[in-house]
Amino acid sequence: MTERRYTEDEVAEIFKQATEAQQSALRPLAPGEGMTLADLQAIGEEVGVPPELVARAASALDAGDAARTRRFLGIPIGVGRTVHLGRFLTEDEWERLVIDLRRTFDARGTIRHEGTFHSWTNGNLQVLLEPTATGHQLRMRTFNGRSSRLAMLGVGALGIAAATALATWSAIGSRGDLSGVLLIGLVGAVSLGMGVLPLPRWAQRRARQMEEVAARAALESADTPER
Predict the structure, then answer these.
(1) β-pairing, 75-84 with 68-72?
(2) What is the model's pTM?
(3) Dihedral, 70, 219, 94, 211 alpha carbons, nearest 10
(4) Is the pLDDT of residue 222 over 70?
(5) In whole angstroms, how far apart are CA 205 and each of 55, 212, 216, 217?
(6) What are the domain boundaries of the chain?
(7) How many helices (H) and strands (E) does the chain have?
(8) Which terminal residue of the chain has fewer beta carbons within 10 Å of its beta carbon, N or C?
């Protein structure tokens, strides 16, 4: 009996469905809920990752700074993440990290080297591999410049509209023509909405991407012995 061979499209569909099935089997965590190290190690054993490597990767992540969020009017406009890797990465490992960054953020970016200092940047997105006394630390940060400028423009326009309306009302009362003021206020409100509305989802996506990159970098660092 001849063993069946699957076409390229069939292979892609099989793995797509298998991945979706795996994701649907995972129960979403409620706010404030999480997994213990033992839970993570049990999951790791199921996929062939030794418990000691999971523990070392978790330890590396624990040593990292808490995720940082830059806000404007309470809305996130920038996010960042730092993780201490516990040793110095080799050039090959840095190159693999760059490949991971390009794949994760869907951007080619620009690479720079200065001794043991490495960086990968794409616009406002910066990923820095910095030397410390105990090894490299991976520092990631980004800032949504376009949405921030729109939000600030909107706030400024609304402020001008309010100040102008108050001055006009104080000077000539209800006889003043406020149509120009209303137009400025409308432009400000639209700009503010266009700037603010996309920011929470953007910040959440970027924070998740940074967390994933940090976790993979910490796991590889833990999996590779010091040279």
Answers:
(1) antiparallel
(2) 0.65
(3) -20
(4) no
(5) 26, 11, 17, 18
(6) 36-144+199-223, 147-196
(7) 7, 6
(8) N
